[in-house]
Amino acid sequence: MQAATVHQLRKEMELLDKKALLDILNRLAKFKKENKELLTYLLFEATNEERFREMIKGEISELISGANRSNIYWTKKTIRKTLRYLDKIVRFSGSQQTEVELRLHFLSELKENRIPVRRSRSLYNLYERQIVKVNKVLKKLHEDLQYDYGMELEEILGSG
Length: 160
Known about the structure:
Layout (H helix, E strand, L loop, with lengths): L5 H10 L2 H14 L1 H13 L3 H17 L6 H22 L2 H17 L8 H18 L4 H16 L2
């Protein structure tokens, strides 16, 4: 089955009444965990983005501090899992400020927990890609935020 475009879906949803739309959303929520997570964010968390960011920062901190450091393989596995989670949250939010703040927190947690990013080429590349992503999104933010987050990034990079 060929999926319809977003434009086609939007036009079709505009034609539906409220009850039919709710039924479709309920069915959608039943099929994938990610759909439920997105609906949870949109219904409960999107109204208070600051609280949401703090909650996610706590979860990222937990995941990184709980990384198994006995073997670099397990460390990489945990860091990748954390990054997949972070990317999903950033997609849900859609806020550039949230993206920068969470990615900076991720980088600072790597430093604070002394994750050996230079011991593994793939881990180092992953680390560098996060810096590139932060810089890319930073350019789109307001000048004051660019400065504040830029200073935070310099602090993180300078301490390593």
